[in-house]
Predict the 3D structure of the following.
Amino acid sequence: MSRVVRSGRLTRSQERWWLRLYWREQGEYDIAWSKWWDLPPGIDVDTARNAFTALVERFEVLRTAFLLGPDHLPVQVVFDPADVRLPLSVADESSREEFRTAGVHPLVGGSVFPRPPWSVRLFTRGGEVRSVGFVFEHIVTDGSGLRNLRQQFLDLCAGRRPALRITHPLDRRAKEDRSASTGRDDPHRTDPAALVPQAVLPSAAEKPSGSRFLMSSVSYTGLLRLVDDICRRDGVSRTLVLTHAIAWLFARHAGLPRVLCCSTIGNRMPGDDSIDCVSRMMDSLLEFDESASFRESLKAASAATLRSYGAEVGSGPRPAEARLRLAAERGVSAVRPLYFNYQGPSQPPPAGAEAQEGVRWTREDAWRPVDTHWLNIVWINVDDDDLVVDFDVDTTMVPASVVHRMGDLLPRFLERVAREPDAPLATAGALLPADFGVVTTARLVGGVWVDTDAVREAVASCPGVHAAHVLVEGEEVVAQVSLGARSTLYDVHEHLLTRLHEAVALVLPRRYRLIEGSAGRGVGPGVADLDVDESWAPADVLPVLPPVTESERELALAFQETHGTPLTDLAPTYADAGGRVILAPALVESLRRRGLTGLTFGHFDTPRTLRSLARSLVRAEQAHTG
């Protein structure tokens, strides 16, 4: 049996990545990171293998595995280096492209993964290792740590063993617990997402005719030196300059003065050479005052980001359940910010050459047939003097023509910032073509984009609905429906909840109203019947739905086993019933032991009802034959 050196709880950022890792094991599609190292000549297979063995000895995180503990919460265990089997394989260099294309993941199958979430393949030619493919989960490292790992590997191959200062995530968790015990946690702090629509942009009026998801990569020559000039002059980071510019383009396209930006940040301190998960998501609200100067706008964005970071440090990451409740209040499946993923040094060098005249750039488009993340993502990669910006978008929200214009407008906007720092931000509007604004059939209602046609179609698709109309009354979306004898308004509401994750165009009506021709007269058990033209709002009252069917009773038993509290009503959402997202895998495993399966991450990260969870359950043998 493998010996465990130490174990403990996950850090808060690890918990987020662990959930993704768990659902990968259940068959959900999710990407793992991969890095490719081209190696200098002279490294044979035994030398490379010994170097990786030494890395595993030196870095505890490379011999850390994750599993469910007896309290149903995830734990991490660190194995003795003598008991670790290296997840390493060797192949001929000719198979490298096949390996890359296959997208090999370190974890596959249906276990609760008590094994390292990383793997390595050595590619050889003529007896020497010419390149390395390193595939890993985000829970291991954030990318910058992997560059450190590469240098450590090369040093070990050369016979050098530099001293290390290492912080394992277990030690980070201890620091987090000490911070929480100081009483700084503020559960009442404002969520930036409460001040913006649930998506940066609505669905466009014109739907794409071909593939829907586009990755448009723009490689800039000379632009980074321009960015660095702004950084040195105004005392801000490369990350902020680029985020501010790109967020402004999205805001002007949407016609809104603010954008919720989500960024990946790190907390490794200088001198910490560890390889671990040091990244987490942080939301900041950037508001654009067009009368402010470019310099003032940058400083305001910097201050907003620092405030958000201060809240994260002082109070810790906001629980997932809080964001789920906010989404439910807005009537959407999730709050979807504009997500930035920045790789590379965030600070410019102390001094450098002046910006080149005439920035040049090239573009390469790649289309994907399926969605993987439900976010519009901007990937920014800085490597020496190269700057690459990848616009990874859903073209039902950001058409390809708009993406291309953003790539072309970015250097022109940054030139204005660099050369006219005291000019009003509004002057940059002259750069935008007349048709740059969004064209959509959606409208903003109560801070949420609403496509009434999409909502009507979803309401009409509910079993038992004979006719449906959707209208806007003040700041409320109202659904008027004609129902069959066995249907209720709550059934319509629940049906919409199960559909929310499928499209950003859907929102929940705030109010439902029966219309002439309805045979259905009620809302549900425990709620008084309605007369025609009377309305019902889910925020006012929900029916009481005790567990009745076999699957509902099994769900209630599994909930009590994992959460320690009885489940007597299936009308609320998982979060509103007291369910913790981090315990969702334990609930799934408890149901699996009872022979029931069918639940996915989508059942827990969107405001679906507990009854809809029970209805999704199937016997394991039925799932297998299906």
